[in-house]
Amino acid sequence: MRTERGFSVVELLVAAAVLMTVCGAVLGLLYRGLAATPVLEETTDLHQRARVASAAFAADARAAAAGTADGPLTRLIAPAEPRGPLDPPGSTAGGVITFRHAVPRGAVGRLAQPLTPADTIAILEAAGCPTGTTACGFTAGSRALILDVAGLAAFITIDAIGPGTLAILDPPGGRAATLAAGAVVVEATEVTYTFDSPSRQLRRTEGGGTFVVADNVVDASFAFLGEGLRQLPPGAFQDGPFLGAGQLAFDADLRRVRVVRATLRLETGVDDMRGTDPRLFARPGTARGAFTIADVQAVVDVALRNVG
To answer: Terminus of the chain with fewer CB atoms < 10 Å: N or C?
Structure first.
């Protein structure tokens, strides 16, 4: 008869200790993985917001001052300005930049007669307009630039159209000079980026509508660089001489701008994921250890294409 020998108490205790150690290590890894998931998701979202804001800014900067077959708009307007559309010419505002450009493949026409500051109806030449269009292809509600050969420009909103005519609305500031017959009328747009510090948002305004490009932005600034990538100070855009007229008048030094730079700093919107180090967090929180997400800074340099 064969005698079977079982495990001793010591062997059972050793086996249980090994099993508990292995299970503890596995559960620890599982816990850290599950705890890190929200951090990874929030980190991905933070970097994605920075990429979206950078791409939007770069696209508008590259289009700045794009014009017609006659050439870029820089001969008549500034490609980029450190002010909003309603700010007076020669002013500079921190955290604000405005671009203007013709709409690609947009409507184009010419004035058949002079347009004085008091006129609300623009008469267009029939010659050169696409066949079958009522007013050279312009539509009610769109915006346009009138470009005078004398170096004047004016932004208008088209209120209504008729056969060869445009009923126009002027922006605040109006038109300060008479635009000559033959001046080009081109469908155009005006884009403004604004950093709103209280709400921590970077906003984009176009055609009267505003939307948020990125939220949880703790800082945003725009710089204007000239030859050799030397930054031009804001005072250079305030002392004249000024070109153009009315609301589109601009300091001649804006023609020296070759590159525009946006510097954006974004943070996580989760307060519990911001650490205490002020070097990494513009608004320090209370989080410690590995489960923190440092602020992200994006610097976008865009060479202006239409500065010739």
So the answer is: N
